[in-house]
Amino acid sequence: MNNLQAFFSHNKKQQDNIKKPISKSFIDENGNAIEWEFAPISPERDAELKTESTKRSLITQGKRKGQYNTDFDHFKYQRLLAVESIVFPNLNDKDLQDSYGVYGATELLGKMLTIGEITEAAKAAQEVNGYDLELDDLVEEVKN
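^ that's the sequence the OP posted. Answer follows.
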């Protein structure tokens, strides 16, 4: 196979889902933390999540009046990426949402997990989607 053929779609290695115990609050019959399963999302869906996490606001005063500020909410993006990447448990399951008294996968995740566990879910989502940076590194990058 020449070098170019290695890039053909039929030679591309598929990204495997990953399984990780995210919370000690959900245990099996043996007392072990149940693993959550994460799958990669498509680049198109990622672009939609980034758009949903971006807010444009019109500048009404000063030298830049009439221009727009673009603010990217990194924390919102991380949570949306985690929600989209989780395939087990099914956060869109109506019965699961009803058991927590919420509507929607994002709200459910916030009820099911602590903030530290949500961070762990976000790290797993980054990993399965091919991000090499750790969440803390991304947070620092956004701050600077």
